[in-house]
């Protein structure tokens, strides 16, 4: 612990270089505060660490390398309101040593910080969470808006470079103001009343001065463990912060600590940049020597920084203008700032002035500045036009006239007129819409007539390939459209969407324009890029539909989605157009790409009048069942009710199977009103279809209201489907606890068995339906009924499904953990076979017997070894597996023999040997364990055996006679392996031979004859 630190302060374990992945020891060493290392190589290890340790103390997330799993998990924790699996998590410290390099990482960085601040409620906290966001001089890669918001957050420190060891030391020494116990009194003692956050927010100026005074006087009364606040909390960032916030008093307090006024932050911005960005005119005036401060220690005049660019080539003037600060821009211009400088986007201050409506820049307009293009090819005039800045445009006209550029000025006056009349939409760039197009949109006939004097204007199109005629027709400007047509505008011209002027007029319902275009022989059947005709476009305007149909438009063309105008009219609920189309031969039975009819869409909208219109000529041949089924599908009660009445008033009374179909469909997809109507009409609630009742379907889908209604109308609560399942079976399987309560309350048999003797509680266990299980326990179910096919109980089912919570609930309610299935398997055997160590632990804790064997003679330990279940083996050994560790199984082998015969089973083998497995027992083939390891060519297994004691012998050491057979076998196999294959000199049998010789040198020369293997 550092000298001077309080003894009751929580101690954070040091994270040494080798501990980055080994976090368990660090946790055990400090139960109150622990590390979560960034285990990028193994995400599951991190998740397991959280699951097992999240309730042991405060979490410290340490991120090495951006974009790693820790970042994602930190965001997850923040987004889930600091809860992980229902356990409240206190994110005490978050330390990230990283630099965002790519755009995607920058966004993750910004989102992470914002989410953590929001989730941990840092700003309202009375204490300072020790949060270090290591930006490492990378703030130039973070957006300006984020930078401004970030430095307003309680960031304790901006670490200047990725010095991990220094950061660890800071963390190890605890809070910044904790080391003041050695100070009797004075301003230094007052520091313990303030957190670094409170100092950093510049709200305590006297304390601020004291802190930075400590840089020179830290030896006066301070302990040797006191931090150098000036070094840790680099004052240049606070200086920039004060400039941004226009806090002149704090700024001067900080300025007196340094003579270097030109020092830039990570983005290359000086304090003058920051003052300009914040519109801080008092700071700007102070920096430029235009005002002085009483008692100021240092005379400041930073005029040399006036045109200094930052990393993005932004001068303070461009910064002020881009942020829209009128007074700051004016002040910098009056101070002689260079107006022609361009930033990295190519914009000058005139560009930003045009965008932000800054009056200050208008007096500096010149033809040279007007000709400057940004990287998007726009001049300041382009931006003024697109943003509707008529004031700057008017000034530009005056400049052009003064320079005798009368032709340009004349054209610009037309633009100015359009701007003044607000016919330039702010969202449309000037380069994207030509003057004649703007005039056409506004209906300015004389302006259009004037512009048409220029040869070729009539053929000009904007960036969307729209001509003036497109715009005039879209806006309904009849006279302009006529003038353009008389000047030979192309009536069939298509824009980027393949739409003609007639498409535009039809979409907006411009009747007069439609008729005008038809007079000029516009193609009424023209197709857009989506294969839509003008009639498709017109469906929301009934009068336009009538005009086009009257002119001969085809009522049944299909677009790319195979939809006719009738489809479109119904989908857009233009009912008058739909009726008009139908009365003009539009087919309501055409199928679109979704296999839907216009009639289907009308039913889905529950618009009875339109449905009746569509079917009025086909009533004799109507498929009422299909229409009513469609109405149920879309919960269209009005349509359903009408056709239900037709069923009762005509000879089309349905058969029982048809009634069953409607009832079943209503039970799963209709509205409550439709189900009511069917039941009240006298339909039997127990009608069956496809082997089940409507109650089965409603229960399976968890429709509690439908379940109750069917029961009220006489549905049998224990009706059986074709697999002999009751509705309770299906509800239990889906974890529909409310439905289960209704069924049980209505008398459903809780122990009902299907054809395989499966009960509802079995299905709930199999599918992990823990809410249903808790309901069942109130009704005393039989939890040990076994299935006919396998003899499995609900406990078997929960293990097989991997549902530990269900397993706990069943055992807690009294389920027998030692029930034996037909093959002799208990739930414990099943858990071991599936390598489910958690379930094994639960079962053993509730009395499961690990000594029971299967019908083939295998113990639980045999199954665990056979499945490489290291975790299961550990649990079994911790619960006394030594008692049966040498039992033989199905093939008369012990668990040790199985481990020796299996590849990649060395960890399991070591565990067995360490817990007393007899290495002297021979296998089912009468082979020694040494021989098994030799034949497996596994030197690691062999060494484990050679280094172990033979516990069953009086002399536990291996004897020469024990080793000879394995040595002879190894040498013979080696010769066989390499004979005729010199490249196989790396044979694994050579390693076996060497291991045996290391154990017993006397084996040398005891090989078998060359012809013997």
TrEMBL record:
SUPFAM superfamilies the record matches: alpha/beta-Hydrolases, Ankyrin repeat
Keyword annotations for this protein, in alphabetical order, are: ANK repeat, Repeat
- State the SMART domains in the record: ANK (SM00248)
Question: Which residue ranges contain the repeat ANK?
Answer: 267-288, 312-344, 431-463, 464-496, 497-529, 658-690, 690-722, 723-755, 790-822, 823-855, 856-888, 891-924
A Pfam family the protein falls into: Ank_2
Q: What is this protein called?
A: ANK_REP_REGION domain-containing protein
Q: Native species of this protein?
A: Trichoderma simmonsii
Q: Organism classification, top ranks?
A: Eukaryota, Fungi, Dikarya, Ascomycota, Pezizomycotina
